[in-house]
Design goal:
alpha+beta, 1 helix
């Protein structure tokens, strides 16, 4: 099997005193569009699980 682990994109917003996860998606373009729509104090994290050997 040569299945690659699926990457998940997490869109988070900073609300004092910490970051809150708002949205998750498997589509990078969608995550970046959401971040632009939300505005300031936003970050997009890319999470890819390690392949088990």
């Amino acid at each position: 099997m040569t299945d690659e682990p699926a990457t998940t994109y997490v869109v988070s917003v900073f609300e004092k005193p910490h970051w809150r996860t708002v949205l998750t998606t498997k589509d990078k373009a969608k995550a970046l569009a959401w971040a632009r729509e939300i505005g300031d104090n936003v970050r997009v994290e890319e999470i890819t699980p390690k392949k088990k050997g």
